[in-house]
Write a structure and sequence with these properties.
560 residues; three-stranded antiparallel beta sheet; 14 helices; elongated; disordered N terminus
Length: 560
């Protein structure tokens, strides 16, 4: 990893070339002239910038060597620069400042420093940046994301002091797309330190970007010997791909679905279920056989994500159950706790409630038969029945009686589409890394995954009477039907059981609450017993947002 880009020592700026500058990626720094061919890009005061095939390259003075878009003293002394280029973000200072890189590749500068310019330039409600983000609601990165607050963006020039993390967002184009998701393309974290980090940062994790606490975590604390050396399967991404997947900052400090547009497109998926698949694949790859050198970059970057997520959580961030939005963040924290042997992280996970992580609150142990059932959102009895009848409210609502999987239809909706397969890949990773399951501290998660993989949806036994209505459309229009008999009675093209027609006169009479804390019993066994008897066992090991690699590792090393 090299200064300026992290692409090697050639000095090339990759995809952000002259054409991109003209398009405005680097703002006013892209103005150029014969005396300034690189449009404001410098080479740290020890060389000159030239364009080669449209890309800026450093031609260094005698005694200095190119290192990205810098010219460095190869003797190992602390380097200085007046400009740090991190991907598509350019941090420009009012003079030469000592700088370096942390183990994960992010930059530090020795402060205090005066920041003169940040490109792409803040444009009122695009390309925003913050100092020590500490709010899990308000944000100053992009006006298209909920709870935008321009007051969170500092004015320039800005005097940055030690202990500050400068976090820059690069808005996703087109900038006039109001329905973007995500709304950021990239992000950069620049950490201001009061003293040069140990080994110039080479053995130090970047301090957490969120909040004012900036503890040091050293890579020398890592225990790579705790990782197994499993045989990888066909869809393993490889260590290099894994390292690249976790290169950019996980900007993820905005709670629930409103945080989805905040995720930089170049750094992480926008949806939680896909984040879960990615973090599971990262941990599984690190459990595969490989040399310490092959693993090192991916390992450091993966643990960095865990450190960041942990400190967001300490600052009040949660990733609660809610469809697939809250999945995928617990695993990196648990992985970091294990590999760093960190008692505080381990204790936090042990005490985390069902609202902290989606994997904690997506399932619960029933009082009937000791089975673990699906259900994310507890609510009133009426809310549950309205969801079954009208499909309103939460489609992941918990069965208030604790007999069957929750949601609008057991085995379907978010249980099928967006949680089960992502959880399977996560469970595979946790189980295959010794010591991780104990740190996970939530056995119901694994019991649920095992049941889904082997047996699918759970709807039996169930004493509760099903809601009833009449067939609409098809060949049996007008025929009485229930949620239990709908698939057998309402047949033909476009047929469905309309359960809404008898809500006013049947709810609380033929089905629903019995007024004593239970449900009205099902006394008509002609269509089976309970609300959805025909769905018991459907969709075993099915679903979307999963991982082929996770499935393979489960089959090879968990089930096998």
């Amino acid at each position: 990893m090299r200064n300026g880009r992290g692409e090697g020592s050639s000095g090339r700026r990759g995809a952000i070339g002259l054409a991109a500058c003209i398009a405005g990626v680097l703002g006013t720094a892209c103005s150029s002239s014969p005396a300034d061919p690189c449009g404001g890009i410098t080479c740290s005061g020890h060389g000159r910038c030239e364009l080669v095939d449209g890309e800026p390259v450093c031609r260094c003075d005698d005694g200095f060597e190119p290192d990205g878009l810098a010219c460095i003293d190869p003797t190992g002394t602390v380097r200085t620069t007046d400009q740090v280029v991190d991907g598509s973000v350019v941090w420009t200072f009012d003079g030469q400042v000592p700088f370096g890189r942390y183990a994960n590749g992010d930059f530090w500068v020795l402060g205090p420093v005066t920041l003169r310019r940040v490109a792409p330039e803040f444009a009122g409600d695009r390309h925003g940046w913050e100092v020590n983000p500490d709010d899990v609601v308000a944000q100053g990165f992009d006006g298209r994301i909920a709870d935008y607050d321009a007051a969170r963006v500092p004015t320039l020039p800005y005097r940055a002091n030690p202990g500050e993390s400068l976090v820059k967002g690069v808005s996703l184009e087109p900038l006039d797309d109001a329905d973007c998701r995500p709304c950021l393309r990239a992000a950069s974290v620049l950490t201001v330190v009061g003293e040069v980090p140990a080994d110039h940062g080479a053995t130090v994790f970047r301090p957490p970007y969120f909040g004012t606490a900036k503890p040091d975590y050293s890579t020398t604390r890592l225990h790579p010997d705790r990782l197994p050396s499993l045989a990888c399967t066909a869809h393993a991404p490889g260590f290099e791909v894994t390292a690249q997947r976790f290169r950019g900052v996980f900007l993820d400090h905005k709670t629930n679905w409103t945080g989805r547009p905040l995720h930089p497109a170049e750094h992480l998926p926008d949806y939680g279920s896909d984040i879960a698949a990615r973090t599971a694949e990262g941990a599984l790859q690190l459990a595969c056989a490989g040399t310490e050198v092959e693993r090192q970059t991916a390992l450091v970057r993966y643990v960095q994500v865990g450190i960041d997520l942990y400190h967001m959580a300490l600052g009040g961030q949660t990733w609660p159950p809610g469809g697939g939005h809250g999945e995928g963040r617990k695993l990196p924290v648990a992985f970091a706790a294990l590999l760093l042997d960190d008692a505080a992280m381990t204790g936090f996970l042990a005490g985390a409630d069902r609202e902290q992580f989606g994997e904690n609150g997506g399932m619960y142990r029933s009082g009937h038969g000791d089975v673990v059932l699906f259900g994310q959102t507890p609510n009133s009895e009426e809310s549950y029945w309205r969801n079954l009848v009208f499909d309103t409210g939460s489609r992941t609502i918990i069965d208030p009686y604790g007999w069957i999987d929750g949601g609008h239809e057991p085995g379907g909706s978010y249980q099928f589409c967006c949680t089960a397969k992502a959880w399977k890949a996560t469970a595979a990773a946790v189980r295959l890394i010794p010591g991780l399951e104990a740190i996970w501290s939530h056995p119901e998660f694994f019991e649920y995954v095992d049941r889904w993989v082997a047996a699918g949806a759970w709807t039996q036994p169930d004493p509760c009477a099903p809601p009833d209505g009449v067939c609409a459309g098809g060949t049996a229009a007008g025929t009485r039907c229930t949620s239990a008999s709908a698939h057998d009675v309402c047949t033909g093209e476009g047929a469905a059981c309309d359960l809404t027609v008898h809500w006013d006169d049947h709810y609380g009479v033929t089905y629903g609450p019995d007024g004593a804390g239970g449900c009205i019993a099902d006394d008509d066994l002609s269509d089976g017993t309970g609300r959805f008897p025909d769905l018991h066992g459907v969709n075993a090991d099915g679903g979307y947002h999963g991982s082929a690699f996770g499935d393979e590792m489960w089959a090879e090393h968990v089930a096998g």
